[in-house]
Amino acid sequence: MTDALTRIADALERMAPPPLPAADPLAHPAYVWRGDRLAAARAFAPLPLAMLRGVDKQRTALLANLERLSAGHAAQDVLLWGARGTGKSALVKSAVGAVQAAGGALALVEATPEHLDSLPDLFATIAATTRPFAIFLDDLGFDAAGDARALRSLLEGGAEARPANARLLVTSNRRHLIPRDLAEQDSAINPRDSIDDSLALADRFGLSLGFHAIDQDLYLDIVRGYADAHGLSFDPAEAVNWATRRGSRSGRVAWQYVVDLAGRTAKYL
């Protein structure tokens, strides 16, 4: 009977293996927050900052803020907002990589918006260390002002605000993270209260960096930077036609064109 129970227990353990251990918060340059534990990022290879074109002011401001955070000095939470594909996420990763390359102890932790409610657990994990952390929430947005109150509490004023060694880096296509028309409709009694809620959330970020649609010359400059870095030649007219067919000019579209160009010339990126 004992042997049978042992075999059953072993079989159940194989079917439901124990959870993987959390990654050491001091050992890796970048992590992913899984909602209940830190996992080391498999391949953290950000672009060199010099590869990012047309975002000089944003790059200077973000890099200076992250250098202060890495050094243990006062630093701001950052909102990077604006047009899609304009380099918000790439700049976050590249700036963290640049700080690390200069000898900084800063680590990146990427958390998905669906894990927002579990961020207090992440904060408890990293607060036990002296290492500085940039908590990266990519492409964040809310459908109503009330949905954003948890983030507002995490930024400041709540019982479980982020620890001193961590700052939030949030990217969004919306300047205030909430569509203005939805904010105006959110309260049937006093719409102004909902608008104030949406503005109060954006105001919690000490550093707000705007990213805007790029013109054709800048788009071609971005394509040229990528092409030169990978030893590719390109036809500017073809690159413009690629963007026209996609309905936008952006750093993302430029990279997609270069990937297609490399594939057609039998090169690996």
TrEMBL record:
UniProt xrefs under InterPro entries: DUF815 (IPR008533), P-loop_NTPase (IPR027417)
Pfam assignment, any one: DUF815
Name this polypeptide is given: ATPase
Native source organism of the sequence: Sphingomonas hengshuiensis
